Amino acid sequence: MENDNQNMNNKFKQTLNSLDVNRNLDTNRNYKDTQGNNKQKNSSEPINPFLFNGNEDNINDENSDQAIENVKQVGSVTDINPVKDICFISIIGEIEGHTSLPPQSKTTKYEHIIPMIIGAEMDPEVKGVLLLINTVGGDVEAGLAISELIASISKPTVSIVLGGGHSIGTALAVSARYSFIAPTGTMTIHPIRTNGFVIGVPQTFRYFQKMQERITNFIVSNSRVDREALLKYMYDTDEIANDVGTVLNAEEVVEIGLIDEIGGFSSAMSRLRKLISEMQSSSN
Predict the structure, then answer these.
(1) What confidence tens digit (pLDDT) does each residue in 167-185 have?
(2) In this model, does residue 204 exceed pLDDT 70?
(3) Kind and range of the H or E element at 93?
(4) Residue 98 annotated to the active site
(5) DSSP string, 202-240
(6) Nearest Cα residue to 175 out of 110, 221, 138, 227
(7) Which among 119, 127, 86, 71 is positioned nearest to 265, based on CA atoms?
(8) Is residue 187's pLDDT more than 50?
(9) Is residue 121 within 8 Å of residue 154, measured between CB atoms?
(10) DSSP class of residue 164?
(11) How far apart are CA 51 and CA 79, in angstroms?
(12) Which of 71, 128, 172, 217 is deepest in the core (most CB within 10 A)?
């Protein structure tokens, strides 16, 4: 029995020694760095076969964790490098204003979007802004603040409605200099409403009237839609069950002049490039 145990211990030690030799041989082999120079690995650093840094031989560099970060964030190891002269801003889900929405809601926080717009305006490398919209609406004043800011920047802006641009999303869609809507996109136009406690006095009604007037004036001044036609769609009672307003498809919103054109991402990018070229030509 003792001989058997001794033999097993010897085999186990031989196996460990073999692993150590292989590891040392592997860690000391030559490799080429990103500049093509021959280098030798540091034998003091063991190789972890489960560590994926996104480069050959698990060589550590300043971007070594980028691929892992891509996996965690977007489920892909592909390194996406968008163009640097276009600022892409997404308005997705529900627009969150002064009150935080439930954590299970997909939201766009206006305190995140406003600095992005200001940064795009101030950054000399950014030549234009592309606004991607797929929203159910949300906080009216927050959405109107974003819309006013987009409409007031000097650089070319293009918006595209993907999926839906409902409620205050209408103002966001028309805030750009040129607007697109996907062929399957829809937009819901309705008067403003509120949830929760409301003081039932005439002053409350006048407040809603003034807020609605602000939104209507903005949409009319930033699009080709007729004011009377917009109000007709807004207060229609036959289109939406248990609600007031109208759901318009892509062809209808273009026909009434609310959106400029039906098109996808490539069309929006082409238009934005054209606006950038026109601005550069006029400044020269």
Answers:
(1) 999 999 999 999 999 999 9
(2) yes
(3) strand 86-96
(4) no
(5) HHHHHHHHHHHHHHHHHHHHTSS--HHHHHHHHT-SSSS
(6) 221
(7) 86
(8) yes
(9) yes
(10) E
(11) 18
(12) 172
Question: Quick check: helix, strand or coil at residue 117?
Answer: helix
* CA separation for the pair 72, 66 (Å, rounded): 10
The DSSP symbol for 57 reads G
The partner residues of 161 in beta bridges, in order of sequence, read 133, 181
Burial of 162 (0-12, 13-18, 19+ CB in 10 A): buried
Task: Render the burial of 91-101: b for 16+ CB within 10 Å, e for the rest.
Answer: beebbbbeeeb
- Arithmetic mean of pLDDT over the chain: 80
The closest of 82, 155, 90, 157 to 124, measured between CA atoms, is 155
Quick check: 88 pLDDT over 90?
yes
Alpha-carbon span 7 to 15, nearest angstrom: 12
Continuous segment of H or E residues that includes residue 87: strand 86-96
- Give pTM, 2 decimals: 0.71
What are the domain boundaries of the chain? Answer: 1-47, 52-81, 86-283
Instruction: Give the integer Cα–Cα distance in Å for 139 and 95.
Output: 6
167 is catalytic: yes
Question: Per the structure block, which two tokens stand in for 52?
Answer: 């994926």
Q: What token pair was written down for 221?
A: 């001044």
C-alpha span between 273 and 266 (Å, rounded): 11
Of 147, 167, 179, 223, the catalytic one is 167
Please give the CATH number for the structural domain made up of 86-283. Answer: 3.90.226.10
Residue type at 284? N
Which residue type sits at 200? G
Residue at 247: amino acid letter: V
